[in-house]
Amino acid sequence: MTAPSELDDPIARFNELLRRAKDTDRSIIPEPTAMSLATSTPEGRPSVRIVLLKHVDESGFVFYTNYESRKGRELIANPFAALCFHWAPLEVQVRVEGAVKKVHPSEADMYFQSRPRGSQIGAWASKQSMPLVSEEALLQRVADLEKEYEGREVPRPPHWSGFRVAPWVIEFWQNRESRLHLRHRYARAGSKWRVEQLNP
Fold first, then answer.
1. pTM, 2 dp
2. Active site includes 179?
3. Any idea of the CA torsion for 182, 188, 192, 197, to the nearest 10 degrees?
4. What is the CB neighbour count within 10 angstroms for residue 136?
5. Is 41 in contact with 78 (CB distance < 8 Å)?
6. What are the extents of the domains in the chain?
7. Which residues of the chain have pLDDT under 70?
8. Fold category of 10-115+158-198 in CATH
């Protein structure tokens, strides 16, 4: 892993690791963009799940979901989140903490139209995180929507969009012998980043 003195920009450092993960055989790292997403209720009750990173730049880490899902409701009520990327074959981990904002509707529209049509239909059909009456009812809902949108573009549902985690802390972890792991933490300091090495 590149030392902070050689790479002071944590986003560039992250992108280099992501590139390495994507270049690794998919039989070894099946989904390089997978990340743990931790949210919590306003009362501080946490939950965590795996989602997929769809975009990252200086403004933050973007993923998409149903705003009416558990994570969507929690992020709207308590707009802070933590992310964790763990690429075991590379022996590295990246942790991100920050504030969360909804992406601009035009950004969400553009991404939604790039999705497979089946995923677009699914975004309308699924009442994500809600109790399922029956599998048959869900499949019927899918069939009805396929018929409704046959021969035309599927619009983005108003309840389906993206969130951007704007990081205030990014920590890089690299495995080393005797559990003397290498840890560097970048903390936002205005428009710049302050970096320090942490005890393992």
1. 0.91
2. yes
3. -20
4. 8
5. yes
6. 10-115+158-198
7. 1-6
8. Pnp Oxidase; Chain A (2.30.110)
